[in-house]
TrEMBL record:
<feature type="binding site">
    <location>
        <position position="274"/>
    </location>
    <ligand>
        <name>NAD(+)</name>
    </ligand>
</feature>
<dbReference type="InterPro" id="IPR006176">
    <property type="entry name" value="3-OHacyl-CoA_DH_NAD-bd"/>
</dbReference>
<feature type="domain" description="3-hydroxyacyl-CoA dehydrogenase C-terminal">
    <location>
        <begin position="186"/>
        <end position="282"/>
    </location>
</feature>
<dbReference type="InterPro" id="IPR036291">
    <property type="entry name" value="NAD(P)-bd_dom_sf"/>
</dbReference>
<feature type="binding site">
    <location>
        <begin position="10"/>
        <end position="15"/>
    </location>
    <ligand>
        <name>NAD(+)</name>
    </ligand>
</feature>
<dbReference type="InterPro" id="IPR022694">
    <property type="entry name" value="3-OHacyl-CoA_DH"/>
</dbReference>
<feature type="binding site">
    <location>
        <position position="33"/>
    </location>
    <ligand>
        <name>NAD(+)</name>
    </ligand>
</feature>
<dbReference type="InterPro" id="IPR008927">
    <property type="entry name" value="6-PGluconate_DH-like_C_sf"/>
</dbReference>
<dbReference type="Pfam" id="PF00725">
    <property type="entry name" value="3HCDH"/>
</dbReference>
<dbReference type="InterPro" id="IPR006108">
    <property type="entry name" value="3HC_DH_C"/>
</dbReference>
<dbReference type="GO" id="GO:0006631">
    <property type="term" value="P:fatty acid metabolic process"/>
</dbReference>
<dbReference type="InterPro" id="IPR013328">
    <property type="entry name" value="6PGD_dom2"/>
</dbReference>
<keyword id="KW-0560">Oxidoreductase</keyword>
<feature type="binding site">
    <location>
        <position position="143"/>
    </location>
    <ligand>
        <name>NAD(+)</name>
    </ligand>
</feature>
<feature type="domain" description="3-hydroxyacyl-CoA dehydrogenase NAD binding">
    <location>
        <begin position="6"/>
        <end position="183"/>
    </location>
</feature>
<protein>
    <submittedName>
        <fullName>3-hydroxybutyryl-CoA dehydrogenase</fullName>
        <ecNumber>1.1.1.157</ecNumber>
    </submittedName>
</protein>
<keyword id="KW-0520">NAD</keyword>
Length: 283
């Protein structure tokens, strides 16, 4: 399928990054969220990243304008009918996602592909609430999207080969490296990453080392660009907890038990960078 216009539904951290990467690759992007305040915030994030690239001499002011001009903000979900592909990037909440997919299913013509950027929720279950499960697929980008090359392309049980091929090709067109993954809790990325982060939190919780030391060990010893606690703050502690809960629920295996300290921080509103305080403080 020839995809030229996409809708990104959800203008948060991930949605903004996806919209930016898509527009930079030449796609037209309908940038949607439920309130114009969220959309404006998302647009400001994209503009800020592009301005940084201009300042570093990586792109021209003209190129920045050209990318921004391809991002069309809208708070009307009905505009999804103009897209060939919708990428959903709202919060990791099954009921909210399925409600959105049901709406999109009624709005979009039959040929439109509905993709979810979910980090761990089952694609098959999301697809099942629509009348087009063969047109539903997972397209899991990594944060920060404009920088990270990976896209996990997740087949739901009913996803057609044609839809898989279109999305795989589109990820390449966006300058990403798609990797095919099947539909299991956490897919591959978060099945491996999150237990590592959770274990790092347990190490602090059990007094094995300070959080700074845990991060140092993983940065200097394993060459990770960020320590696991710094990365948890970057991803968002609420997101980390919800992924651990999904792994725990999905596999019913105690090895995925979320660390009580992670749950405590989330309950306290310490969500990481976005709230100004997680394991570390952010001015
Ligand atoms: N948005 C866009 N670009 C960004 C960015 C952001 N939020 N943050 C950094 N960048 C860009 C910078 O502009 C810079 O670009 P240039 O090379 O073109 O100048 C480049 O990234 C490097 O940035 P910095 O020099 O400022 O800093 P750095 O070298 O420390 O790199 C980092 C920053 C890329 C974020 C790096 O620390 C890193 O790779 N961290 C790990 C990220 C990671 O693991 N992501 C996966 C998270 S898990 C996930 O996303 C899945 C999930 O479901 C939870």
């Amino acid at each position: 399928m020839n995809i030229q216009t996409i809708m990104v539904a959800g203008a948060g951290q991930m949605g903004s990054g996806i919209a930016q990467a898509a527009a930079a690759s030449g796609l037209h992007v309908l940038f949607h969220d439920i309130s114009s305040e969220f959309i404006q915030k998302g647009l400001a994030t994209i503009a800020k990243q592009l301005t940084r690239s201009v300042e570093k001499g990586k792109i021209t002011e003209e190129r920045k304008g050209e990318i921004l001009s391809r991002v069309r903000p809208t708070d009307r979900l009905e505009q999804a009918e103009l897209a060939e592909l919708v990428i959903e990037a709202i919060i990791e909440h099954m009921e909210l996602k399925t409600a959105l997919f049901q709406k999109l299913d009624t709005i979009c013509p039959a040929h439109v592909i509905l993709a979810s950027n979910t980090s761990s929720l089952p694609i098959t279950e999301i697809a099942a609430v629509t009348s087009r499960p063969s047109q539903v697929i997972g397209m899991h980008f990594m944060n920060p999207v404009p920088v990270m090359p990976l896209v996990e392309v997740i087949r739901g049980l009913e996803t057609s080969q044609e839809v898989f091929d279109s999305v795989y090709e589109l990820a390449k067109q966006m300058g990403k490296t798609p990797v095919e993954v099947n539909d299991f809790p956490g897919f591959v990325s978060n099945r491996i990453l999150m237990p590592m982060i959770n274990e790092a939190i347990f190490a602090v919780y059990e007094g094995v080392a300070s959080m700074e030391s845990v991060d140092q060990v993983m940065k200097l010893g394993m060459n990770h660009p960020m320590g696991p606690l710094e990365l948890a703050d970057f991803i968002g502690l609420d997101t980390c907890l919800s992924i651990m809960d999904i792994l725990y629920e999905g596999f019913k295996d105690p090895k995925y038990r979320p660390c009580p300290l992670l749950r405590k921080y989330v309950k306290a509103g310490r969500l990481g960078r976005k709230s100004g305080h997680g394991f570390y403080r952010y001015p």
